[in-house]
Design brief:
single chain; 379 residues; alpha+beta; eight-stranded antiparallel beta sheet; disordered N terminus
Length: 379
């Protein structure tokens, strides 16, 4: 049973293969957790005596050259990263926006672990070859062509951009529209690592919107190339686990009554209900108060890599149902003040490892900033 404003948050899990170090400073004034600045650093994971750290922005500096020095990423060989760089550079040459680069790298992670695979004999899936396991018998090209990383990447992008609405699709749906895999849900788990590799090799391009020379950091309301967006167009008014509210397992965003609440990323709805009230007439159908328990009307969404987001204090019954697949930026409810609330706002949480309890929660402002989807001005 969930109590209070739902104790749900904890340590930040590092991506399994990409290590990102984030330094954050923040200032608190009264109930407002405002702004702060963030510097993003990536652990080069070189030899023990030389771990080079470099900052990145929102893609304006462009991709790193394929034949230059590339960062080291735990779990990936220089050859794998060079293949990733090829995929990014081909996408940039074709003027495909960075979301396409993330999709392409995640696809290659699933299909080949970013290795340019040749004929594996009985282990081959039919005649699948190369980074994307493209099949010559299905018209992708000759065996030699599909084992050329540049050619294979170009063919992937050419198919991708012909998919109507691919830029608004979830990564899994977009990749599946190109690949027609027997395991269509397998691509999603690679999205976080793919986005981090794009950030490392292309100056933070997974945090951006636009394409090539027009790349800019995602603003509130934009879906970044990473696939994440702010759930409301409002800043933080109460922070995560502050000294005055140590059990506050999320952040409060100062949105107005009636504002749309958006899904922060593509995923599946796992909870959509009135907290602490299972049968009509629901206590959530009226304004709550500091003495009312729970989240009121709320929604939990499960995303790739067992990341979960929570959205509390909705005005009405949520717009989405359990089991429904939602896209990033899709309206899921309306800002209200049901449950344990003293006024209209959105209480927003991020949980890792599929853990809905306080042990699984992580600081939402930091998480969203890393994804290129900051929570309000200066967040």
């Amino acid at each position: 049973m969930l109590t209070g404003e739902l104790d749900e948050t904890s340590r930040r899990r590092r991506p399994k293969r990409v290590v990102a170090l984030v330094a954050i400073t923040a200032t608190l004034a009264l109930l407002c957790c405002g702004g702060g600045t963030a510097a993003f650093f990536l652990d080069g994971l070189g030899n023990d005596s030389n771990q080079a750290l470099s900052s990145y922005g929102c893609g304006a500096a462009g991709p790193l050259p394929e034949d230059g020095d590339l960062p080291r990423v735990s779990g990936y060989s220089p050859t794998q990263l060079r293949n990733a760089a090829t995929i990014i550079n081909v996408g940039a040459d074709l003027k495909v926006p960075p979301k396409g680069w993330v999709i392409a790298i995640a696809t290659a992670m699933q299909e080949s672990s970013l290795n340019n695979l040749g004929n594996l004999g009985s282990r081959n899936d039919h005649d699948s070859l190369g980074l994307f396991q493209q099949r010559p018998s299905q018209g992708w090209g000759t065996p030699a062509q599909v084992q050329d990383p540049v050619y294979a990447s170009r063919k992937f992008y050419q198919k991708l951009v012909k998919v109507r609405g691919w830029e608004q699709m979830s990564l899994t749906d977009a990749a599946q529209a190109v690949q027609r895999s027997a395991f269509p849900d397998a691509y999603a788990k690679h999205e976080p690592d793919a986005a981090e590799i794009v950030n490392m090799l292309a100056d933070g391009a997974a945090r951006a919107v636009g394409a090539n020379s027009t790349l800019t950091c995602a603003a509130i309301g934009d879906v970044a190339a990473s696939g994440w967006t702010a759930p409301v167009k409002a800043g933080v008014v109460s922070g995560f686990r502050t000294s005055s509210r140590p059990s506050h397992q999320g952040v409060d965003l100062g949105a107005s009554r009636g504002d749309d609440i958006l899904a922060a990323a593509a995923g599946t709805v796992i909870v959509s209900r009135c907290d602490n009230d299972q049968t009509p007439p629901f206590r959530c159908d009226r304004d709550g108060s500091p003495s009312t328990p729970g989240c009121g009307w709320y929604v939990d969404i499960m995303h790739a890599s067992e990341v979960m987001t929570r959205y509390c204090h909705m005005l009405y019954r949520p717009k989405v149902r359990v089991g429904q697949t939602v896209a990033a930026g899709q309206p899921i409810g309306i800002v209200g003040t049901s449950g344990h609330s003293s006024g209209p706002h959105l209480h927003f949480e991020v949980h890792l490892n599929g853990d809905r309890s306080s042990a699984g929660a992580t600081e939402p402002s930091k998480w969203m900033r890393e994804k290129g989807a900051p929570l309000g001005p200066g967040a």
